[in-house]
Amino acid sequence: MTVAPDKPDPNGIDQMLDELAALPVPDPSGDLVARVLADAELHLLAPGGRVAVTPWWQQIVRGIGGWGAVSGLFAATATGFVIGLGAVGDTGVDAFWTLGYDEAYYDTDLGLDAFGWALEEG
After folding, report:
1. Predicted confidence (pLDDT) per residue in 47-101, tens digit
2. What proportion of the chain, given as a percentage, has pLDDT over 90?
3. For residue 12, is it within any domain?
4. 61 shares its domain with 84
5. Number of structural domains in the chain
6. Which of 25, 67, 83, 84 has the lowest tally of Cβ within 10 angstroms?
7. pTM of the complete model
8. How many angstroms separate the CA atoms of 105 and 23, rounded?
9. Does residue 24 lie in a domain region?
10. Among 62, 54, 121, which residue's Cα sits nearest to residue 94?
11. Would 115 be classed as within a structural domain?
12. Bigger pLDDT: 53 vs 23
């Protein structure tokens, strides 16, 4: 039977899998078992030992993705904060920029103005 090269032969695949399943599985060598057991002993605690407790902040840093991820989050937060402060200047909200000063204290001597306000006043 001729099969097109772009279409797999389903009977041939089943036959190949049956042949692979019938092959005997070799036992691991004694050397391999000894190396696996020696590696496992390295990961065991010493008798009477305790697991070292990792500080909570190291667990958080590791959970986030390491110091690179923390620095990226810090940069994004700082950038968002700066962009957010710059956006308030165009809304006309002067209570934010006067930082709680009353109208009696608000004059040009304070120097608390945004670029947009300086353009509006002339």
Report:
1. 777 777 889 999 999 999 999 999 999 999 999 888 877 766 555 555 555 555 5
2. 35
3. no
4. yes
5. 2
6. 25
7. 0.36
8. 92
9. no
10. 121
11. yes
12. 23
d(CA 70, CA 50): 30
| Residue 112: count of CB within 10 angstroms of its CB | 14
| Full domain range(s) for residue 119 | 93-122
Distance of CA 90 to the CA centre of its chain: 34
| pLDDT value, residue 12 | 79
Q: Which residue has the tokens 């049956």?
A: 18
Distance separating alpha carbons of residues 25 and 115, to the nearest angstrom: 78
Cα-flanking dihedrals φ and ψ of residue 36, to 5°? Answer: -65, -45
Six-digit token pair at 60? Answer: 């958080």
User: CA quadruple 13, 14, 15, 17: dihedral positive or negative?
Assistant: positive
